[in-house]
Specification:
Strands 1-5-4-3-2 form a 5-stranded antiparallel β-sheet, with helices on one face. With 76 residues, the chain is an alpha+beta fold.
Length: 76
Amino acid sequence: MNSTQNKKRIIKSHSDILTVQQAINDLYNEYKKMGYDMIRKILNAFTYRLDDGSVAIVYWDKGNIYEKVVESKGGQ
């Protein structure tokens, strides 16, 4: 198992619940422009494939936007 799997990291503070969806949309579009394989998007979260084939989720929870690897590939 990858040592980073199941560890979440804060990528952005965002405490305004009314604008969370727009903040997630902006990040989704930014990741897409960077060339990531975008897997799925829902209201306050999205998943994408990392360069090594792992799957990560970006989501909002209690005032922060987090990123967490949920499926690790390559056994690194």
